[in-house]
Design brief:
By secondary structure, the protein is an alpha+beta fold. The protein has 4 domains: about 180 residues, no CATH class; about 150 residues, no CATH class; about 80 residues, no CATH class; about 45 residues, no CATH class. The longest helix is centred in the middle third of the chain and has 22 residues. The chain is globular and about 65 Å long. Bound molecules: adenosine monophosphate (AMP) and magnesium ion. Magnesium ion (MG) binds next to loops. It is an enzyme of class 2 (transferase).
Length: about 525
C-alpha cells in the first residue's frame, strides 16, 4: 500500500504500511527503553485520521543529523502524527511523579506523550524525540492523551523563540494537525508536536522512585543520568553529590536567563523541572509585555506561586525535593548526607546571582564592573514596574539611546506612563556610561546583542493560531522568521515587536493541552 493513502493501522501494526521494507531515516537509539520495565510503559501512538504538516524544523533536523527533505515526506508525516512507528524506535511513556503546586502527586507520567527514541546530534549529544499529543497511555488517568492545536502551536513557537534567545530549552522538530477534534471546554482541532529534549528525566522522575521506597530505582536512574548527561562527574569523589550540585547550578543559571528576557514559565512543578537544566513543558508560559515583578498569567495559579519574581525561590524549592531523593546515595550516615545536600544546594544562589547580575549590567550597556551597577539596573526595573513600561521594548530602545545626550529619548521615555521617571533614571545612567572606555557605537551593538527586539508575545500566538484556522499560515511564518533572529530589527515585520493594543491584551494563559 502506498503511504499517501495509508489507512489508520492497528496499534501493533508496524508492517502494513511497508515500513519494514523502507530504510528508516531516523535511526533511533533507545537507551531509556533498555532500563528496567518499571521505568516506563511500552505504548503505541494513537492513529489519527488526516494528518497534515504545519511545520518541519529544517534547521533542527540538520542539527540532529537528519535530512530535512526526508522529513517533509508523507512517510515522515505519518511518523510525526503517530500513525507509523519507525523500525528503529521503541515507543514508551515514561513514569514520573511530582509535586504540583506544592502537593505530592504519586503518579503522573507521560499521559499524552510517547518517547520514540534518541538521536545523536552533530555535537555528539544524544537527544530524545518525543511525540506530545500522541494518545492515551497507562499514565493518562482521566485525560484523552491528545493535544489541542493551540498549545502545540504555542509550544513550537515558545521553545524555538527561547532557543534563538540562547536560553537552554527543549526544541520543536515538527508540528502536525491531526484532522481530529479534541474536547476541552469546547471542541477544538487537535495537533501533535515532536519535541526534542536533551533529557526528559525530571526531578519528578527521581521522586517517583524515591517516594515509592524504590532505592534501587533511584540509583539506576541516577547512574543513567550520570552516564548519559554528566559523564565528566563520574570521576568526582561523590558523583551523586556532584550531580546534585551541577543540576542545581544549571537550574539557577537557567532561571536567571528567564528573568533577563522577561519569561514566566507558569507551572514550575517538580515534574516540569529538567534534570539537564533545560526549559521544559511549555504550558501556561508567557513573555511579559509591560513589566511587573509579580506578573502571573496562569489561569490555574491563583496564589501566584509561580509568578515572575517567585521563580528563583520555586526553582530552589524543587531542587530541595530532588536533593531528598538522593539522600541515601549521598552518605550512609544521615547527617553527613544532609550536609552534602546542603552544600550542593548552596550552588544555586551563586549561579543565579552571577548570571543575573552580569546579565543586568549587560542589558544597560555596562562592560566594566563598578559599584552600584546592579542597583542602577534594579532602579530601572523598579521604575518600569511603577510606570508599566514594556520589558522588551525598554531595553531594546535603551540600546539605541545615545550615550551622551537625551536628544533621541522620546520613543524610549514614552514607554513610561510618567516619562519623567525615565528621565530621572537616565540622569544616573549617562554619567555611569561616561565612565566606560568603549565607543558608544560599540556599546549600542553590544546592547542590541543581548536585548532582543522580538519575544513571543501572547497576542501574537493568538494571531498566528487564528491565521492557521483560517488557512493563512503567513502570520505563523512571519512570527517564526523574527523569532529565529530576535536580535535583528526585521523592519518588514515591525508590528511583531509591538506590545498588544488595549483590546489585544491576553490576561490569562492556559495549559489547555
Ligand atoms: P503538565 O501540565 O504538562 O505538566 O502535565 C501534568 C500531567 O498531566 C502529566 O502527567 C501529563 O501527562 C498529564 N496530562 C496532561 N494533559 C493530558 C491529556 N490530555 N491526556 C492525558 N494526560 C494528560
Ligand atoms: Mg509536565
Amino acid at each position: 500500500m502506498a503511504l499517501s493513502d495509508a489507512q489508520p493501522a492497528g496499534p501493533a501494526d508496524r508492517t502494513q504500511d511497508g515500513a519494514r521494507d523502507r530504510p528508516d531515516v531516523f535511526g533511533f537509539e533507545t537507551s531509556y527503553a533498555r532500563l528496567p520495565e518499571r521505568f516506563y510503559a511500552r505504548v503505541q501512538p494513537a492513529q489519527v485520521r488526516d494528518p497534515k504538516f504545519l511545520r518541519v524544523n529544517g534547521t533542527l533536523a540538520r542539527e540532529l543529523g537528519l535530512d530535512p527533505d526526508q522529513l517533509e515526506t508523507d512517510a515522515a508525516l505519518q511518523v510525526f502524527a503517530g500513525n507509523r512507528v519507525p523500525e528503529s524506535a521503541d515507543p514508551i511513556a515514561q513514569a514520573y511523579a511530582g509535586h504540583q503546586f506544592g502537593n505530592w502527586v504519586p503518579q503522573l507520567g507521560d499521559g499524552r506523550a510517547v518517547l520514540l527514541g534518541e538521536l545523536t546530534d552533530r555535537n555528539g549529544v544524544k537527544r530524545d524525540v518525543q511525540l506530545k499529543g500522541a494518545g492515551k497511555t497507562p499514565f493518562s488517568r482521566m485525560g484523552d492523551g491528545r493535544a489541542a492545536l493551540f498549545p502545540v502551536v504555542a509550544e513550537y513557537l515558545g521553545s524555538e523563540a527561547m532557543a534563538a534567545l540562547g536560553v537552554p530549552t527543549t526544541r520543536a522538530l515538527a508540528m502536525v494537525t491531526t484532522g481530529e477534534r479534541v474536547i476541552r471546554e469546547d471542541i477544538r482541532p487537535g495537533g501533535v508536536i515532536a519535541r526534542v529534549a536533551t533529557s526528559h528525566v525530571r526531578v519528578g522522575t527521581f521522586e517517583y522512585f524515591a517516594r515509592n521506597g524504590d532505592q534501587q530505582g533511584v540509583k539506576q536512574l541516577a547512574d543513567y543520568v550520570l552516564d548519559r548527561h554528566y559523564p565528566e562527574l563520574k570521576a568526582a569523589d561523590s558523583p551523586y553529590a556532584a550531580l546534585l550540585q551541577e543540576v542545581t547550578r544549571r537550574t539557577g543559571d537557567l532561571v536567571a536567563q528567564w528573568m533577563l528576557v522577561g519569561f514566566i514559565h507558569g507551572v514550575m512543578n517538580t515534574d516540569n523541572v529538567s534534570i539537564v537544566g533545560e526549559t521544559i513543558d511549555y504550558g501556561p508560559f508567557a513573555w511579559m509585555d509591560s513589566y511587573h515583578p509579580a506578573a502571573c498569567f496562569s489561569a490555574v495559579d491563583m496564589g501566584g506561586r509561580y509568578a515572575f519574581n517567585q521563580q528563583p525561590q520555586m526553582a530552589h524549592w524543587n531542587l530541595c525535593r530532588f536533593a531528598e531523593t538522593l539522600l541515601p546515595l549521598l552518605s550512609e550516615d544521615t547527617e553527613q548526607g544532609k550536609q552534602a545536600a546542603y552544600d550542593a544546594l548552596g550552588a544555586f544562589e551563586p549561579a543565579f546571582d552571577a548570571r543575573f547580575n552580569a546579565g543586568l549590567r549587560a542589558k544597560i550597556g555596562l562592560q566594566t564592573e563598578q559599584e552600584g551597577d546592579v542597583d542602577l539596573a534594579l532602579d530601572l526595573l523598579r521604575r518600569m514596574a511603577e510606570e508599566s513600561a514594556d520589558f522588551t521594548l525598554t531595553f531594546r530602545r535603551l540600546s539605541d539611546a545615545d550615550g551622551a545626550d537625551t536628544g533621541h529619548d522620546e520613543q524610549l521615555r514614552a514607554l513610561f506612563r510618567d516619562p519623567a521617571s525615565f528621565d530621572a533614571w537616565a540622569q544616573q545612567w549617562r554619567p555611569r556610561l561616561a565612565r566606560e572606555a568603549r565607543a558608544d557605537s560599540d556599546r549600542k551593538a553590544a546592547m542590541r546583542a543581548v536585548n532582543p527586539a522580538f519575544v513571543l508575545r501572547k497576542h501574537h500566538v493568538y494571531r498566528a493560531y487564528d491565521g492557521i484556522l483560517a488557512g493563512d499560515h503567513s502570520p505563523l511564518d512571519a512570527l517564526l522568521t523574527v523569532l529565529a533572529e530576535p536580535f535583528a530589527d526585521h523592519p518588514e515585520h515591525a508590528d511583531l515587536a509591538q506590545p498588544p493594543a488595549q483590546n489585544e491584551i491576553v490576561r490569562n494563559t492556559f495549559c489547555g493541552t
